[in-house]
């Protein structure tokens, strides 16, 4: 099977080059001037609560593995439902080609809710970090398998300077070994580790990935489990291994009653 992640990243780099001809880095920097500090995504996803873990609920229309997830897709209505249900943060997919997302969704959701907003995309260039901040994101996703370690560090430094939190995502042990020392870099409180149970090269899911990789970390490293959560039993398994938060989108967005499904999973 072809490596889907490599294909997506190659397409994303071409897309970014095209968009840079329309909006320059200096123009993005000008848009950021005067913006308030980002909402504290780190605190939102690491704080203790009675539920046992925090919830990053994702606004998700489609994916390469599932196809169209929600036909009656209204990102603002979905985000408001999540917030009413008690979500601690909102993740917004903005990749257009593979996930039918839009950058505007970040701006729309940010204005509609009070919790922090994560921009979830394939960020491979400094320009996108500034673009995310200008759009109103409070946090960004950086995928370790999509970035050489030096580039990852540079983007983390830039994000911290802009008060953005970084969710550093890994799926395999070798990637974890290369980035685990970066959690807390360059400043404490601006990065958390995401363990994706979905293999982005094949799109297969194994919920055991979280527990397997979590065992390679010190207990004080904040971990977000991503993908594969479908039942209350799955949630309880993740609470049992000590993750701080779960990122969940498809299971919620494909259900006819999002609030009902949220309550079923998280109480």
Automatic annotation (TrEMBL):
It holds the Pfam family IGPS. PROSITE patterns: IGPS (PS00614). GO terms for molecular function: indole-3-glycerol-phosphate synthase activity; phosphoribosylanthranilate isomerase activity. It comes from the Bacteria. The keyword Amino-acid biosynthesis applies. Keywords: Amino-acid biosynthesis, Aromatic amino acid biosynthesis, Decarboxylase, Lyase, Tryptophan biosynthesis. Pathway: Amino-acid biosynthesis; L-tryptophan biosynthesis; L-tryptophan from chorismate: step 4/5. Belongs to the TrpC family. This is Indole-3-glycerol phosphate synthase. It comes from Anaerobaca lacustris.
